[in-house]
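Two records follow; treat each independently.
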Amino acid sequence: MAAALLTGCQSQQLLTLGDMSSAYNREILWMSIPAIALSIIIFVGVSWALFYTVRKFREENNDAPPAQFHGNNRLETILVVVPVIIVMLLSVLAVRSLARLNPVPQDAEKIDVLGKQFWWNFSYPGAPAAAGGNVTNGNELVLPTGKWASLTITSGDVIHAFWAPNLGGQRDATPGTQKTWQIQTDRAGVYQGNCNVLCGASHANMRFKVIALPPDRYNSFLTAAQAYRAPTPAPGSAEERGYTLFTQGKPSTGALACAACHRVQGTPANGQAGPDLSFFGTRRTLGAGMWEALTPQHWEAPQAAAELHAWIKNSPAQKPGSLMPPYDGSTYTLNGKTMKAGLLTDEEINDIAAYLRSLRLPEEADYWRDVPVIGANNTTIAQGGNP
């Protein structure tokens, strides 16, 4: 029933608790089989006792007052001991699985997970970037197959919950605390993830992708990401104009600099309030998974370009609760206060979009390339489609 309900989520992908490519899900399955079998035995036994008693001791067949069993030590002992044995068996199963799943393997890939309204940041503390800081990616988690990934999860505002059902259980992201959680898969592919705790107006739009790569491709990604520096735009190009607006804004019209909230590796942009945009041109999701661009030339497609333009121009209109300021001169509400947005022309917004599209990893480090979407319908990333 859970698997059937989860398939109704707003995604092209199948979310299932029964994905046996995950070591976590396999362990939970083997823990559940004895528990379910025991539950069936108890259900059948209690049902038989109930119907037997009702049938045998119907009032019309028994005129005498019912016999009292108070003080029947043997019966009372059975009624206490049997439930205790059942609880002990279930406890042993649960504790055994916890002992197998909770310890962090020494060779686990360590990743820091930050949840905020309404997006995710994934940082690799064991992969320092040559340009400074650690390798970080927004809303797309890349990990190796056949190896546990140890996630240190926290929140920057309210309580969120990290959950990729195909890969393992969920863990709350709580402000001020750090919780460790392990996920793993033996199968390369793209998996769907969601926030699983109601966290505000765009809770349903707080999604993420997990891209599991074979070890050699994962190492290629991580090596390239560590060496990555944002390309220097060509003089006079749209990318150069976009870079200037991205880092400096447009004070004359009140348009704030994107760099105040976003980080781009290898540039002065080092904002922490929004998702890391270092590899934006390689990513195929926008708005924390609200839109999915499905072709290798994703952001060049007219529809995807229009979505990106609309997102930059007025993010709160596209995603309720988004804290990114509009750039259309409108008024908006931030933390209960009415604010006046800065103004950028459509051409200037297109320049920023052109700069963002230029932020690409090398081809050999493109973690989306030739990776199947797990449980997708006939429109898959490999086959192309619309965002």
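The next record belongs to a different protein.
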Amino acid sequence: MVEVSGALDLDACDELRARLGRALALHDPPLIALGVGGVTSADSFGLTVLLAADRHARSSGGRMVAYAAGLTLRKTLRDRALDGVLDLRPSLAEALRTLREHPGAWA
């Protein structure tokens, strides 16, 4: 599980990339619950990091599920036609339920 907050922008990219990279390496296949409830804004740099992590998880046979997205992040994703790309769930419980149903999930 990874929690992110604040602005997902150019300044946050290196730390975000490192945190998601560590999470992707923890399980094979990678299964990540990504808490985004504290995200206050996201620009193209931050979104690129999120999408790259999601793509990596899927190409490795895993999955990344984001949860608790606030109105600002949901609007940003919708405005950029990305609202159907990231798997968004309303709560951590729902994200974990989704990940448990994934083939290769932990018991």
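Discussion point: The longest strand covers residues 31-42. How would you locate this feature using only the token line?
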